[in-house]
Write a structure and sequence with these properties.
Largest sheet: 4 strands, mixed
Order of helices and strands: HHHHHEHEHEEHH
Strand content: 5-15%
Helix content: 40-55%
CATH architecture of the largest domain: 2-Layer Sandwich
Number of helices: 9
Shape: globular
CATH class of the largest domain: Alpha Beta
CATH topology of the largest domain: 60s Ribosomal Protein L30, Chain: A
Length: 244
């Protein structure tokens, strides 16, 4: 059954999310993967409910270890948002360079970024358009999608997310599922955003090299020597929750 064939589950997932249910609760209730739920409800406002409030709809309630794990995840995610804060122009530039250093194409003349995480694709596209003079008509998407999944729904999803029209999607690669390797499949597949431009690619690689240069790393080392960088601290400098 393709992505479009789960419209009922999508509606139920969105209703539960609006009621404050967590992703793993919704996945367990509907019998679907948590990654699918994450895609379906990503734009639904979420206010966590008390996990001990009311009756669990699944066969049994969460164990104490499950609750501790979820509480720690939510606490550290909130802490991460506080530490990163709002992205300034410089932070955004560096974040995009780091993202490309790990996931981007290094072949000269070709800007390429592939990832199945919608948030990473969205961040990359925003970064590319913000810091480089992009000719929109040359932006393309190539999709990797397992056979049996809904190609039209996947193209519609990634087109809406990237702002790249369906007409500029190249021929998709329809992979044959191999149950001996994996049983879960990304319902929307894995897109590769492509932009062929030597000047842009070399400018991006210049940022990547600068990020990984001895000069940049020596600056981090100096901060560590001054005690400003503390791997056990709650923040990058003395902050609430930091170890003395």
């Amino acid at each position: 059954m393709g992505y479009r064939g789960k419209l009922a589950e999508q509606g139920q997932a969105r209703d539960l999310r609006a009621q404050g249910y967590r992703l793993y609760e919704i996945a367990a209730e509907l019998g679907v993967s948590k990654s699918s739920v994450s895609l379906w409800v990503r734009d639904v406002p979420f206010v966590p409910r008390d996990p001990n409030y009311g009756r669990w709809r699944v066969g049994r309630g969460p164990t104490k270890s499950m609750l501790r794990k979820q509480e720690e995840i939510e606490r550290l995610q909130a802490q991460g948002r506080e530490r990163i804060g709002r992205l300034t122009e410089k932070k955004f530039l560096v974040a995009g360079a780091a993202l490309y250093a790990g996931e981007g194409s290094k072949r000269d003349g070709h800007v390429g970024f592939a990832n199945s995480d919608p948030m990473m694709i969205e961040l990359f596209c925003a970064w590319l358009r913000r810091f480089f003079d992009i000719e929109e008509s040359r932006l393309k998407v190539y999709l990797y999608l397992h056979q049996g999944l809904d190609l039209d729904a996947a193209i519609e999803f990634w087109s809406g997310l990237t702002g790249i029209p369906r007409a500029r999607f190249g021929a998709p690669y329809r992979a044959v599922p191999d149950p001996s390797i994996r049983t879960s499949k990304h319902p929307m597949g894995c897109p590769r955003v492509s932009y062929t431009c030597s000047r842009t690619h070399r400018a991006i690689m210049g940022l990547v090299r600068a990020l990984l240069s001895c000069e940049a790393l020596s600056g981090v080392a100096q901060l560590a020597e001054q005690g400003i960088v503390n791997p056990k601290a709650a923040g990058s400098s003395p902050a609430p929750g930091a170890n003395p």
